[in-house]
C-alpha cells in the first residue's frame, strides 16, 4: 500500500540520511518515477524532504528533522516477539539488551496490539538447533565480534575438520552467521571467500590493519556463494537402499541431506518377486546368503531410498539402522558395509555364548 511505502521511505531517509533514488526504488521494489511521486506526496504532507541531482545527489530530509513513528500494525508487533534465533543473543551477550528492547517496544505499541504481541511471545517458540545434535562446545565470539564491527583484519589459529594441529590465517571478515545452532565466521582469505566454524577457532586476535573486503560485496552475497558450494558439492557415490517401513520416518530425519529424493514406496519400487518366491530362490545352492533380503518381511514392508555420499566409506552411516536397512546398489557399498559389520562382530565375538552351553573358543 502507498501509505506503508511512504512510511518506509521516511524511515529509510531518517536512518540513512541522503539516499539515491535508484537505491530507494530497489529497496521498495518500485520504479524510480514512483519514488519521486512518493517524495512529492511526503512534501505535500509537510515532511521537509528534498532531492539533489548530480553524481553525489540523492533524496534527504532537512537537517534536524525527525519523527517518532509508533504506528505499528498488529502483524508487525507480533513479528517482533517471535525470536527466530534465541541462541544468537546468548552467544553475543545480548540477552539482557534484548529483554530491555522488547519491554520498550511493548510500551511503545498501540494499546490494542499489546495483548496479541505478548501472547505471541508465549505461544510461539523457534528452536534453531537440530534434533539429536548433542551439547555444543562453548564458543568465544568476543574477538570475532570485535573484528567484524571495527572493520579490522583478523589473525586466527584454526583447526580444520579431521586435523589435530592448528593453522594460522590472516583473514578479512565480512561477518558472523548462525546456522542451525552453529556459528561461522565468513571471511576472505587471500581474496577468496572461506567459511570458518567458530568452535574450531583456537584463538583470534584483531590486527591494526584495515579490512580488505571486495568492493560492493556484502555478507549476504558471500554467504550465498559459500552455502551453494556446500549444498551443491557433487557427490560421486550414488547409493540405493531399502529400509523397513516402520523405520522410514526415523531414517528420513537422520539421513537428511544425503537423500536425493523422497522415499519410493510404490509397488513398482519394491524388490522384484513376492516374498515366497524370493525365499524359495534363496534356498538354491549359492543363494543362502540372500535369504535375509526378503524371506522375513514381505515386499510391502520395505521402502526404497536414493542416497548420495561424498565418499564411499560414508555409507557406513547406514550401520546405525542394523538389519532394518539393506544397500542394493552399488556392490562396492555393500562390500564396505559387509566388512564393517564383520569387524563389529569380531569385537563382540568373545562375549557370544557358546550354543552348546560352554563359552566361546576365544575364552
UniProtKB/TrEMBL annotation:
<dbReference type="Pfam" id="PF08279">
    <property type="entry name" value="HTH_11"/>
</dbReference>
<dbReference type="InterPro" id="IPR036388">
    <property type="entry name" value="WH-like_DNA-bd_sf"/>
</dbReference>
<dbReference type="InterPro" id="IPR001034">
    <property type="entry name" value="DeoR_HTH"/>
</dbReference>
<keyword id="KW-0804">Transcription</keyword>
<dbReference type="InterPro" id="IPR057727">
    <property type="entry name" value="WCX_dom"/>
</dbReference>
<dbReference type="InterPro" id="IPR026881">
    <property type="entry name" value="WYL_dom"/>
</dbReference>
<dbReference type="InterPro" id="IPR028349">
    <property type="entry name" value="PafC-like"/>
</dbReference>
<keyword id="KW-0805">Transcription regulation</keyword>
<protein>
    <submittedName>
        <fullName>WYL domain-containing protein</fullName>
    </submittedName>
</protein>
<feature type="domain" description="HTH deoR-type">
    <location>
        <begin position="2"/>
        <end position="61"/>
    </location>
</feature>
<dbReference type="InterPro" id="IPR051534">
    <property type="entry name" value="CBASS_pafABC_assoc_protein"/>
</dbReference>
<feature type="compositionally biased region" description="Acidic residues">
    <location>
        <begin position="268"/>
        <end position="279"/>
    </location>
</feature>
<feature type="compositionally biased region" description="Basic and acidic residues">
    <location>
        <begin position="280"/>
        <end position="293"/>
    </location>
</feature>
<dbReference type="InterPro" id="IPR036390">
    <property type="entry name" value="WH_DNA-bd_sf"/>
</dbReference>
<dbReference type="Pfam" id="PF25583">
    <property type="entry name" value="WCX"/>
</dbReference>
<dbReference type="InterPro" id="IPR013196">
    <property type="entry name" value="HTH_11"/>
</dbReference>
<dbReference type="Pfam" id="PF13280">
    <property type="entry name" value="WYL"/>
</dbReference>
<feature type="region of interest" description="Disordered">
    <location>
        <begin position="259"/>
        <end position="295"/>
    </location>
</feature>
<dbReference type="GO" id="GO:0003700">
    <property type="term" value="F:DNA-binding transcription factor activity"/>
</dbReference>
Amino acid at each position: 500500500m502507498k501509505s506503508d511505502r511512504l512510511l518506509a521511505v521516511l524511515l529509510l531517509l531518517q536512518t540513512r540520511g541522503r539516499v539515491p533514488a535508484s537505491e530507494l526504488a530497489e529497496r521498495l521494489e518500485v520504479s524510480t518515477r514512483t519514488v519521486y511521486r512518493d517524495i512529492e506526496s511526503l512534501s505535500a504532507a509537510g515532511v521537509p524532504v528534498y532531492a539533489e541531482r548530480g553524481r553525489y545527489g540523492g533524496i534527504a530530509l532537512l537537517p534536524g528533522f525527525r519523527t517518532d513513528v509508533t504506528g505499528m500494525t498488529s502483524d508487525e508487533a507480533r513479528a517482533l516477539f517471535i525470536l527466530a534465533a534465541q541462541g544468537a543473543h546468548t552467544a553475543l551477550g545480548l540477552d539482557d539488551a534484548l529483554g530491555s528492547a522488547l519491554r520498550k517496544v511493548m510500551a511503545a505499541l498501540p494499546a490494542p496490539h499489546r495483548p496479541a504481541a505478548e501472547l505471541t511471545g508465549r505461544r510461539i517458540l523457534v528452536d534453531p538447533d537440530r534434533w539429536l545434535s548433542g551439547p555444543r562446545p562453548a564458543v568465544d565470539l568476543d574477538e570475532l565480534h570485535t573484528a567484524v564491527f571495527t572493520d579490522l583484519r583478523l589473525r586466527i589459529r584454526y583447526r580444520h575438520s579431521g586435523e589435530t594441529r592448528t593453522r594460522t590465517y590472516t583473514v578479512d571478515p565480512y561477518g558472523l552467521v548462525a546456522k542451525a545452532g552453529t556459528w561461522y565466521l565468513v571471511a576472505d582469505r587471500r581474496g577468496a571467500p572461506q567459511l570458518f566454524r567458530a568452535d574450531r577457532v583456537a584463538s583470534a586476535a584483531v590486527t591494526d590493519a584495515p579490512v580488505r573486503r571486495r568492493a560492493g560485496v556484502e555478507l549476504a552475497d558471500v554467504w550465498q556463494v559459500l552455502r551453494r558450494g556446500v549444498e551443491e558439492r557433487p557427490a560421486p557415490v550414488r547409493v540405493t537402499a531399502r529400509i523397513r517401513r516402520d523405520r522410514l520416518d526415523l531414517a528420513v530425519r537422520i539421513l537428511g541431506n544425503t537423500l536425493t529424493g523422497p522415499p519410493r514406496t510404490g509397488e513398482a519400487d519394491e524388490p522384484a518377486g513376492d516374498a515366497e518366491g524370493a525365499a524359495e530362490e534363496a534356498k538354491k545352492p549359492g543363494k543362502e546368503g540372500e535369504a535375509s533380503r526378503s524371506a522375513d518381511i514381505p515386499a510391502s514392508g520395505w521402502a526404497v531410498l536414493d542416497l548420495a555420499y561424498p565418499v564411499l566409506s560414508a555409507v557406513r552411516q547406514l550401520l546405525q539402522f542394523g538389519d532394518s536397512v539393506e544397500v542394493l546398489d552399488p556392490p562396492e557399498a555393500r562390500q564396505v558395509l559387509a566388512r564393517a559389520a564383520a569387524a563389529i562382530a569380531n569385537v563382540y565375538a568373545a562375549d557370544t555364548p557358546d550354543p552348546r552351553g560352554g563359552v566361546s573358543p576365544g575364552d
